From TrEMBL:
Involved in base excision repair of DNA damaged by oxidation or by mutagenic agents. Acts as DNA glycosylase that recognizes and removes damaged bases. Has a preference for oxidized purines, such as 7,8-dihydro-8-oxoguanine (8-oxoG). Has AP (apurinic/apyrimidinic) lyase activity and introduces nicks in the DNA strand. Cleaves the DNA backbone by beta-delta elimination to generate a single-strand break at the site of the removed base with both 3'- and 5'-phosphates. DNA binds at residues 91, 110, 151. It catalyses: Hydrolysis of DNA containing ring-opened 7-methylguanine residues, releasing 2,6-diamino-4-hydroxy-5-(N-methyl)formamidopyrimidine; 2'-deoxyribonucleotide-(2'-deoxyribose 5'-phosphate)-2'-deoxyribonucleotide-DNA = a 3'-end 2'-deoxyribonucleotide-(2,3-dehydro-2,3-deoxyribose 5'-phosphate)-DNA + a 5'-end 5'-phospho-2'-deoxyribonucleoside-DNA + H(+). This is Formamidopyrimidine-DNA glycosylase. Its EC number is 3.2.2.23, 4.2.99.18. Residues 2-113 form the Formamidopyrimidine-DNA glycosylase catalytic domain. The keyword Phosphoprotein does not apply. The gene is mutM. The lineage of its organism: Bacteria, Pseudomonadati, Pseudomonadota, Gammaproteobacteria, Lysobacterales.
Length: 270
DNA sequence: CGAGAGGCCTGAACGC
DNA sequence: TGCGTTCAGGCCTCTC
């Protein structure tokens, strides 16, 4: 399931193949993913040159002069650049034929992803109101502390709120909370400034490390060149409920927090 | 407004 | 072996 590092890895992998090249045609094999595919993908994108491949939160944007294709990989989506005659497989929902003979192919078994359109000089509603990027200068412990005052929600849910900070999904929030020694069920408004500083540092360090390593691979992610990532074995708590804590050896707790599977150490995280 | 629940979707894992 | 059930999860949307 692509989290921010996987999306960034995808962006970096796609950019050399797409930047400066024109989209020649769009092939839609079904009309919708999570939402209907934007009509502009077929009506306006063909003929346009891709000026840049950008990322905002977990969204990818293919910028052209008239607007940007806006993609989200959802949970099971992947994008690959393939020779134009590569046979189509199950769940290959969209092809963008790229100048030079290749095709950008969007595969998404669960169809939690989307392919929308952002007109030039506008901001798509899905991108409006998003919180800061976790690796930007505006994201730090002081920011989290200030925003969390009076919030009774679990700190884990708080950190996964896209209005608070983007791109911190269920895997990395578990790892960051473990690294910072904070219980995921603690009320967001009751975490001290000092501990939020540690948490922000942990988020930065873990995401930065994962990006440098090419992203975590669990079940569904395939990086653009087809090679799987290899970060999984480094996870401390995610997916390890019932196993020993890597620090103290006690059994890791598992429970649902905010309707999400959550694992933590009741001894090391308070 | 905040908090929590619901829903989308399919494949893998599991139980009988 | 085969089939039904459960779970997973990003994140928008609805309800209270």
């Amino acid at each position: 399931m692509p989290e921010l590092p996987e999306v960034e890895t995808t962006r970096a992998g796609l950019a050399p193949h797409l930047t400066g090249r024109r989209v020649l045609a769009a092939t839609l094999r079904r009309p919708d993913l999570r939402w209907p595919i934007a009509p502009e993908i077929a009506a306006e994108l063909p003929g346009q040159r891709i000026d840049a491949v950008r990322r905002r939160a977990k969204y990818l944007l293919l910028d052209t002069a008239v607007g940007s294709a806006l993609l989200h990989l959802g949970m099971s989506g992947s994008l690959r650049v393939l020779p134009g005659d590569t046979p189509v497989r199950a769940h290959d929902h969209v092809d963008l034929a790229i100048e030079g003979g290749h095709v950008l192919r969007f595969n998404d078994p669960r169809r939690f992803g989307c392919l929308l359109w952002q007109a030039a000089d506008s901001v798509h509603p899905l991108l409006a109101g998003l919180g800061p990027e976790p690796l930007s200068d505006t994201f730090d412990g002081d920011y989290l502390f200030a925003l969390s005052r009076g919030r009774s929600v679990a700190v884990k849910s708080f950190l996964m709120d896209q209005k608070v900070v983007v791109g911190v999904g269920n895997i990395y929030v578990a790892e960051a909370l473990f690294a910072a020694g904070i219980s995921p069920v603690r009320e967001a408004g009751k975490v001290s400034r000092e501990r939020y500083r540690g948490l922000a540092d942990a988020v930065r360090a873990i995401l930065g490390h994962a990006i440098a390593r090419g992203g975590t691979t669990l079940r569904d992610f395939i990086s653009p060149d087809g090679a799987p990532g290899y970060f999984e074995q480094e996870l401390s708590v995610y997916g390890r409920g019932g196993a020993p804590c890597p620090t103290c050896g006690r059994v890791l707790k598992q429970a649902m927090v905010g309707q999400r599977a959550t694992v933590w150490c009741g001894h090391c995280q308070r």
